[in-house]
């Protein structure tokens, strides 16, 4: 939603300028208070008072709100940028800027040795009263329209709800299926149907609530309908009732539907309680099945569920929903539907297109290409299948369909895929809408790193601040909420169990693109469209950067004066927008660009070069980078980057991710107060090379949560790096990665804060007894050990260690004997061993850890593989079906030898191997 995003972004910008440690603000107090008051009212309206009603009037209002908020932000940021650029120019020329220049702010503190002189040459001022008054008048006009709309609409209860509730109440004696067999075609959920039928007709006598969960179009309603109309169910229940709830519901109408009575048959004066009582009496003593289809809130359930008696005779209630956490509210068996696999998708497609006939051989290849593009979503397969059934059965036509499948799926009547999926978007609360729409900036099928996505949401200003949590923590809650609503897909989990990579289905991405285009939220340059230079967020696809288009793309970007965000592969020739704050570049960067154009983008919040480059040359970041007053995130996938001392003054920095960062020693703080030197917002500092962690340095980064450090054997000895200060000062550190190449006694010098949850050590010379200190860390959940040079090849863990360790990863260490049992790793969930050629065996007692779910060996000794198989056998015989064991061999010959020995072994008997898998590396 562009209106919400614009309002929150404006609030964020004003707050950042007001609270900036190096900016002094001069505002007209009355005017700023007027803006704040109006923004608060408009934000409350967008968040609470539209009631999800989609109407032209609401859309126009929200468009006007977005325009007014954008105008205010443009004005305020323009003056901030103008002031900072004036200071930069004055520093460069040592001349006084024109007195007529309107200035927003002046720097509180020097950023260079000459800045006292520079500051004397700059006269701080305030935003033009006329400019601000124009903005206020625009907001006031919109405010009056909003108030008129609220008065016209009345209270929440008086607003016209949007709902669709077909009458389909039946009894066992007069039952019919809800839809025809054709529309009820179900493929891929046969097992779930059998399980659902068993649950509906099972011996449990108390009333059961059975949720079916999944994204829109996944097949929830189809599964419920197949069960509802099944002959077993028809004859088992005395009463069967089906009701579909919309996003906006009316309790009275719901009760009428459940009673199978029309509104005209009921006295208008009868209230909900009397209707509910009538329903209760009708259901009392009888075995009933109620299906509540497409429920969107617990509130709706709570208002009607009290009228469903528990008759202790096997009553059942089936609930379908797109929102996962609603299912957990019921605390019962959950049916969670997933995408169809390739074979299931093809089977459903053929049923939809050919009914009972076979697919002609000439159409099979192109048909499978079409099915593959549907990505396993039954809705899209059914829609395109229905279209092709009524179309020309020719290769040429089917190739046309395959070429533009997504657009075709979303074209047509109200039953198209987009209209069905858009219900999920319409129901989103206002704060989640911009975050969801933003998913459209990523390419199709892109694997999206959650950490990157969260940083972008924060930089865009979508996240409303909260005193109790960081912006990143709030953003992660938003992400999990969107995943819970089945709008974003979990793809990969990290070692800590949190979601690391997410994706979005192609149809949902298309929904993002269409809504974003309509709301002018962002625009994707698929060609040189008129007006794109006015876009606030521009995504420049690689396809358009062909030779014949590139010059036109550059010219267009040069005209984009209000653009805030740019995602592009254009090299070094970017938008001239002075207000640019998010820039993602997917190609190499040029050294002269860093020293030239980038420092003109003083409003930058997020700067990312995503293409990895390895070079032996050191690149110096310009000292003028300190002029980027609001830079939050800097990402450079290039080794050997040297930062200037000004980086220690960039107090808005939140995440520094540079592949090979050479940090200078910080200047002495002297008499400066703590809040004047600490980088309070800094949370991530990655790949810092050969840095001395002095007391002065640690005091400046006390809030860092993720730290990666690298040391080279050719430089200083390890005891010169003051590593002991890390544990002494960094009390909020949660993740620590240490790469070293041959340094001695590092673990004796390095100390760890008790806050540490993840530890990754690589390349150190160490002894296994050094791990005793690590094992005593009270919050450690993830431990990765790689390429350590251990002296004694024996590991004897001590009692009471690793009490919270869930993930253990060991790679290429000369470990022979590992003497451990389940008590040494009491809550371990995953064990990974890679390249452990000398390891004789995994301790068999490791399999007794009750929480253990996975053991994986890759390129380990044959004896270790045999011990892993023994663990799998023991646990299977003990009834532990939760543990999976996987062994990966380098080549097929090794796998064959292993399997042959297992066949001849007398120790491995009566073993089904359902929990064991042995494969080669490429399998």
Detailed description of the structure:
The protein has 923 residues and is α/β, with parallel strands linked by helices. The protein has 31 helices and 34 strands. 40% of the residues are buried. About 7% of the residues have low confidence.
In round numbers, the mean pLDDT is 81
Strand portion? 15-25%
Q: How many alpha or pi helices? A: 31
Low-confidence stretches: 94-126, 155-183
- DSSP E strands, number: 34
Largest sheet: 19 strands, parallel
Cα-based radius of gyration, to the nearest Å: 32 Å
What's the helical proportion of residues? 25-40%
End-to-end Cα distance, whole Å, is 45 Å
| Structural class assignment | alpha/beta
Q: What is the global morphology?
A: globular
